[in-house]
């Protein structure tokens, strides 16, 4: 058949975007008029995907009668060695007209959002079309009704967990604060108090670490629904990667486009958070909103607007949403990067003298808030949380959760390190969240689990000339040099002023 090519795995990770590779002299490319970035439909044994075409130079690594599939495309088609796929032009995405309408300021209906979510999951929309949709939703361009409709469409497109409990607790941080790894500590405290808290978390896309990346340093997080149920039924809580489940699956596609563009959409953020909380079966959710000049939420006015929308939309899904506004002026803890943040988490749970006190205090605030929700009290929860942590019960619960998830491992340290020194003396006034996160990423985080940054100074402290401000950790000399060069170029990562604090 002329529309058929042999399929082989390309061995290329394109995250969630299916990509197909064909040679420029491939007979299908020539006959069908396929060019680079064309959307191509591939059918195989009753399955079909829409993939983006990348064209390979004639005579390079790919035979002209073969098509190579990215890892996500190979998996989605359940392809096997020796398979032959049928290629064709896909029909235009039905929701493309709704996206254009939104771009021109129209209000979308529940059916419109459902169509967009369905086309997203079927890969019928290109990255350009998804970017247009998300851009059209930025700022306050989604009203409350549209936010509810988008949340519902995202929720109904995936699976939902039901714990059979009247009270299931959860917490979420809107992000933007490096090192703010409170979730493992909060889960341990709340579960030790006898509550149910099934915490699903994300991996980092553009940040140095997500909660799942940090937990994976210490225990497996890639658990399916049955395994998660066993952990929660035995220990009351878990900290796992949500990507292993089909909970609000469209959200990962939106985030993949949204984060590199640094888009800020209240409606989209609310839909992202609440669709996943409702999908995991939570009904009481504490939302941490760090506010600071280089955090995701920049002002208290913005925090109030986001908080009002979270509470209002949560009511539509029987979610009791409680808000916690916190200081987002700088990083939390000492470590930035999976293993470095894991070390901070463990030092707090183990009650070590060197434990970062800001991370401890934030975790106690959040755990206390959840215990107040559970008991219907105000303020008493923090004291209970502190007693649980100080008694060692939280550490024991954390280790039990790790054991149930597949076993505990101590974090390892990177082999390559370099100190970045203060260029002059003075008081450290501020640390730029975005720049310090960038330095940690250039060092290899989060893919290199031991990579990142360890801070030696905090705002308000006095630095002497040449005193270490932070140490870069890397797995290779090349990554270390790359990150260090960026740090030397961006000295404004730490603002040092003369005079007392």
From TrEMBL:
PROSITE patterns: THYMID_PHOSPHORYLASE
Main EC class the enzyme belongs to: transferase
GO BP field: pyrimidine nucleobase metabolic process; pyrimidine nucleoside metabolic process
Catalytic activity from the UniProt record: thymidine + phosphate = 2-deoxy-alpha-D-ribose 1-phosphate + thymine
Keyword match Glycosyltransferase: yes
Gene3D superfamilies xrefs: 1.20.970.50, Nucleoside phosphorylase/phosphoribosyltransferase catalytic domain, Pyrimidine nucleoside phosphorylase-like, C-terminal domain
GO molecular-function terms, A-Z: 1,4-alpha-oligoglucan phosphorylase activity; thymidine phosphorylase activity
Protein name (Swiss-Prot/TrEMBL): Putative thymidine phosphorylase
Entries under Pfam families matching the protein: Glycos_trans_3N (PF02885), Glycos_transf_3 (PF00591)
Domain Pyrimidine nucleoside phosphorylase C-terminal: 427-494
Family: Belongs to the thymidine/pyrimidine-nucleoside phosphorylase family. Type 2 subfamily.
Keywords of the record: Glycosyltransferase, Transferase
GO cellular component: cytosol
Tree of life domain: Bacteria
E.C. number: 2.4.2.4
InterPro entries: Glycosyl_Trfase_fam3 (IPR000312), Glycosyl_Trfase_fam3_N_dom (IPR017459), Glycosyl_Trfase_fam3_N_dom_sf (IPR036320), Nuc_phospho_transferase (IPR035902), PYNP-like_C_sf (IPR036566), PYNP_C (IPR013102), Pyrmidine_PPase_CS (IPR017872), Thym_Pase_Put (IPR028579)
């Amino acid at each position: 058949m002329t529309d058929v090519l042999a399929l082989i795995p390309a061995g290329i990770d394109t995250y969630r975007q299916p990509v197909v590779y064909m040679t420029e002299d491939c007979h299908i490319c020539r006959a069908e008029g396929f060019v680079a970035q064309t959307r191509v439909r591939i059918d195989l044994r009753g399955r079909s995907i829409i993939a983006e075409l990348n064209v390979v130079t004639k005579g390079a690594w790919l035979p002209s009668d073969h098509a190579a599939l990215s890892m996500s495309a190979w998996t989605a088609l359940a392809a096997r060695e020796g398979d032959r796929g049928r290629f064709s032009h896909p029909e235009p995405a039905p929701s493309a007209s709704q996206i254009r309408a939104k771009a021109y300021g129209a209000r979308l209906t529940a059916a419109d959002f459902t169509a967009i979510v369905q086309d997203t999951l079927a890969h019928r929309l290109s990255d350009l079309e998804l970017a247009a949709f998300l851009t059209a939703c930025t700022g306050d361009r989604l009203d409350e009704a549209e936010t509810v409709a988008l949340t519902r469409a995202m929720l109904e497109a995936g699976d939902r967990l039901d714990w059979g409990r009247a009270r299931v607790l959860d917490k979420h941080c809107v992000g933007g604060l490096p090192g703010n790894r409170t979730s493992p500590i909060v889960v341990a405290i709340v579960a030790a108090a006898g509550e149910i808290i099934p915490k699903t978390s994300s991996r980092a896309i553009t940040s140095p670490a997500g909660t799942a990346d940090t937990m994976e340093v210490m225990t497996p997080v890639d658990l399916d629904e049955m395994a998660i149920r066993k952990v929660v039924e035995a220990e009351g809580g878990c900290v796992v990667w949500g990507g292993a489940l089909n909970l609000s699956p469209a959200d990962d596609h939106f985030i993949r486009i949204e984060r590199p563009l640094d888009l800020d959409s209240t409606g989209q953020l609310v839909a992202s958070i609440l669709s996943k909380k409702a999908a995991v079966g939570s009904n009481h959710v504490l939302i941490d909103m760090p506010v600071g000049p280089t955090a995701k939420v920049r002002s208290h006015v913005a925090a109030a607007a986001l908080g009002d929308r979270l509470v209002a939309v949560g009511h539509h899904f029987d979610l009791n949403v409680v808000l916690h506004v916190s200081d987002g002026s700088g990083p939390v803890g000492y470590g930035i990067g999976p293993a470095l943040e894991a070390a901070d988490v463990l030092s707090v749970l183990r009650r070590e003298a060197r434990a970062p006190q800001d991370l401890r205090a934030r975790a106690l605030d959040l755990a206390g808030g959840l215990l107040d929700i559970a008991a219907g009290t105000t303020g008493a929860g923090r004291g209970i949380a502190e007693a649980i942590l100080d008694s060692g019960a939280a550490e024991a619960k954390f280790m039990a959760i790790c054991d149930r998830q597949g076993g505990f491992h101590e974090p390892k340290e990177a082999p390559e390190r370099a100190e970045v020194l203060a260029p002059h003396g003075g008081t450290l006034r501020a640390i730029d969240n975005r720049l310090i996160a960038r330095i940690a990423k250039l060092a290899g985080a989060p893919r290199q689990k031991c990579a990142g940054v360890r801070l030696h100074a905090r705002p308000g402290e006095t630095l002497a000339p040449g005193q270490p401000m932070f140490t870069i950790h890397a797995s290779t000399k090349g990554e270390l040099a790359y990150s260090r060069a960026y740090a030397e170029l961006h000295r404004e990562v730490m603002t040092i002023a003369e005079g007392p604090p």
